[in-house]
Amino acid sequence: MANPTTSLPLYQRVARKNTIARAIELSILSLLLSLLAYRILSFQDHGFSWLLASLCESWFAFNWVLTVSAKWNQVEYKTYPQRVLQRKPELPPVDMFVTTADPVLEPPILTVNTVLSLLALDFPADKLACYVSDDGGSPLTFYSLVEASKFAKLWVPFCKKYSIQVRAPFRYFSGESMSSQDTSPQFQQDWKKMKDEYEQLGQKIEDAAKGSIPCELAGEFADFLNIQRRNHASIVKTRVSRVMTNAPFVLNVDCDMYVNNPQIVLHALCLLLGVRSDKDCAYVQFPQHFYDGLKDDPFGNQLVVLFEYLGRGVAGILGPFYGGTGCFHRRKVIYGLSPQEYDEEISGKLSDQNLQKTFGSSVEFTKSAAQILSGSKSISSSPHDLLSSVEAANQVAACVYEYGTAWGREARAKF
């Protein structure tokens, strides 16, 4: 007898009720068509200015129809994260990538908060790997992450013990966080301790930014000596994750976009694992949310129309557009497997010669790509080594690695 929990869907596609909005849009459409009809019927009684106005109004009407059609069928997805835990006792691993490039324009404290919010997610710690990519090669950013890794040993248990919702420390401690939490003496004591520890972390990073990094670019910081921000060799540190992973799912996040929902991975897996076939869902895009904006958002900086209406409208047609940060990807799609090839024989692509042409000369990387493309079930049960050594990681991360690869040729052709 089948377990009833395994037959339940992981998500539900719900259509939004927008009857009033549709009625208003149809009324506007009738007015636009009436205006255009009047213009056409009155051409002979007016001159060139009338024709020019007609062309402008026709172009406006065309763009308006495209916009309305894009948000006509708005949908929402209701996910059931607890069903993922019931149906998938062996959860697939997830790799999380945070990108930054400039410690001045993107202060390291922002990156630290984003990383801490990712490390504290409600997901098995051995299934998560967090990587920070710093194109600027900043020793300040590296120092900040080293200190953040020490703070994380206190912050992560605190968040999970008290079920903290907002797990970016700067946001959590900036509001009335204690009012909605446990008011027990133990919680208040732990809260005060965590706040003090975070303030000390922020002070260390601030002092380091003023030029007093207590390392003098020696030891493990020696790699940052005499480097140029726009021209330097690849530097690979593996401190928290000693093993380079190759998870079947990848999350990319900008350094200033912390996670505001600790169950975000489970919500994403509801969609990625709940579809009938992998080819039905290549990625899951979460919209951005903005805080501390002006009341009523007079300048549209919070992009409400884009995310809340157009985004959900496009999702009702085929799927949401890729918006950059906050997106979960299937790694095999990133590796170039198209939907048409999901149900076909791909053994030809997995030959050593084709793998080297596509992914380069790294044996570790090509072997890992072959496992992902072949759909090996063992990948979803435990993290796999992407690179067997830091030397191999440096090889793949180098800017010259792309030469001779299919990806490198495509990238150069575009630029």
TrEMBL record:
Q: Which domain of life is it from?
A: Eukaryota
The protein's name is Uncharacterized protein
Q: Which organism is it from?
A: Rhododendron molle
